[in-house]
Write a structure and sequence with these properties.
Blueprint (H helix, E strand, L loop, with lengths): L1 H33 L15 H12 L1 H4 L13 H9 L2 H6 L17 H12 L6
Helix pairs in contact: 2-6
Bound molecules: heme C (HEC).
């Protein structure tokens, strides 16, 4: 009987240790994606191109309202020319960085990760080319 008792205690302790170490892992996972390069994750912003880097981000987070014929708020991001318009008038960066005076985007969703924002900024810094 005693053996069973100790086995149970040992099991319970292993269990707790596992749960504690797992929850610590989760904390790290949560803090990493947002900091765009720090804390062990890397964010490659070199040679950002519209088709390879920027368009996929917009497709994932914005097309449901601004692509494929959707023009929420009169804003389309479905092709290069319309994206360039929002770059040139400052609305794109204002919206995704949640800057004062702009409607924060994606509307009703979480802000883009710092990495994705930095990728878009890097593409704009290189002239927001149709590349
Ligand atoms: C759930 C729908 C939805 C999603 C997803 C969404 N938007 Fe919007 N967006 C809107 C609506 C509605 C408006 C117009 C109303 C407003 O300005 O608040 C708008 C307005 C904008 C504007 C004009 C902002 C301004 O201040 O004039 C820009 C730029 C924009 N969106 C970019 C984006 C980008 C970039 C994404 C993806 C990262 C995105 N949106 C995702 C619905 C959405």
């Amino acid at each position: 009987m005693k053996k069973v008792f100790f086995t149970l205690i040992a099991l319970a302790m292993t269990c707790c240790t596992l749960i504690i170490s797992c929850s610590k892992d989760n904390e790290q996972d949560v803090t990493n994606p947002g900091n765009g390069g720090g804390g062990g994750t890397t964010c490659d912003t070199a040679n950002m191109a519209y088709s390879a880097n920027v368009q996929p981000i917009l497709q994932t987070y914005c097309y449901s309202c601004h692509g494929n014929g959707n023009v929420s708020g009169g804003v389309s991001l479905g092709n290069y020319a319309s994206v360039k318009t929002q770059v040139d008038n400052g609305n794109l960066i204002g919206a995704i960085t949640h800057a004062a005076g702009y409607s924060p985007m994606p509307q009703g969703g979480a802000k883009l990760s710092d990495c994705n924002i930095n990728k878009i900024k890097a593409w704009i810094a290189r002239g927001a080319q149709n590349n």
